[in-house]
Amino acid sequence: MCVVYINITHITHMNITEALNWRYATKVFDTSKELAQAHIDTILEAGRLAPTSYGLQPFRIIQVADKELRAQMKGISYGQGQVTDAGTLFVVAIRTDINDAYIDEYIARIAETREISIEALEGYADMMKNTVGARSQEDKNAWSAKQSYIALGTMIAAASELQIDTCPMEGFDTKELDTLLGLQEMKLQSVAYLAVGYRSQDDTTAQYKKVRLAQDDFVIVK
Ligand SMILES: Cc1cc2nc3c(=O)[nH]c(=O)nc-3n(C[C@H](O)[C@H](O)[C@H](O)COP(=O)(O)O)c2cc1C
């Protein structure tokens, strides 16, 4: 089989530290610049490939393309311009049905993918049902949100590597958003946005120096 790699990046390569220094939580996006579908796909793939506890992926990503919907979302997101102006907007939403049926579906997927029997996975299924599945709904939601933020971070890092700007956002009314997008019926509950696009030249916050703890204060060596 012949594999052809097409270089779709428009930039010179940055190493991961340079890319993470280059990135910032973008406040003003350039509305005239569109994202390539291949780049959107790469960022989504980074989220899909992120690790999760047991591999359960207890969250989904909703891509909101509809401009009218995004205008409505801005109204419940403290008027933050990124909601309408970013090239695309992802909503990270946890699954609210992490129960035995959800776990069994996952087990069936493992069995099919790895060509092993469901019976061979019974112990694993029971362990998940007795740990994650047995928690209170509130605990499950908190656990699912933790998993989803790893994917959020992975997507941000992947975007920065492509020199694509992002803004992770929690500044919105999750209940109102869930109603607007009909998430409850889909057994979903929103936790965060990821606005993705290209920074506007007018975004002066791009010039702000990063404020971070010194590595010696951040890392505790024992
Ligand atoms: C979970 C989360 C929620 C955030 N919510 C918002 C938000 O609603 N609006 C916003 O402009 N920035 C938001 N931020 C961006 C942070 O303020 C920003 O990442 C932080 O100040 C560090 O700056 P830097 O990312 O530019 O390095 C959020 C970041 C995270 C990780």
Task: Describe the structure using short key phrases.
single chain; 222 residues; alpha+beta; 4-stranded antiparallel beta sheet; 9 helices; 4 strands; 13% strand; globular; disordered N terminus; binds flavin mononucleotide
Question: Can you give me a brief rundown of this structure?
Answer:
By secondary structure, this protein is an alpha+beta fold. The chain has helices at 16-22, 37-48, 67-75, 82-85, 100-114, 122-130, 137-161, 174-181, 215-218; strands at residues 59-64, 88-95, 165-169, 188-197.
How would you describe this structure to a colleague?
The chain is of the alpha+beta class. It has nine helices and four strands, in the order H-H-E-H-H-E-H-H-H-E-H-E-H. It is globular. The structure holds flavin mononucleotide. Flavin mononucleotide binds next to strand 3.
Helical stretch tally: 9
- Total strand segments: 4
Bound molecules: flavin mononucleotide
Q: Could you give the order of the helices and strands? A: HHEHHEHHHEHEH
Helix/strand class? alpha+beta
From the alpha carbons, calculate the radius of gyration and give it in angstroms: 20 Å
Query: Between the first and last Cα atoms, what is the distance in angstroms?
Result: 51 Å
Major pleated sheet: 4 strands, antiparallel
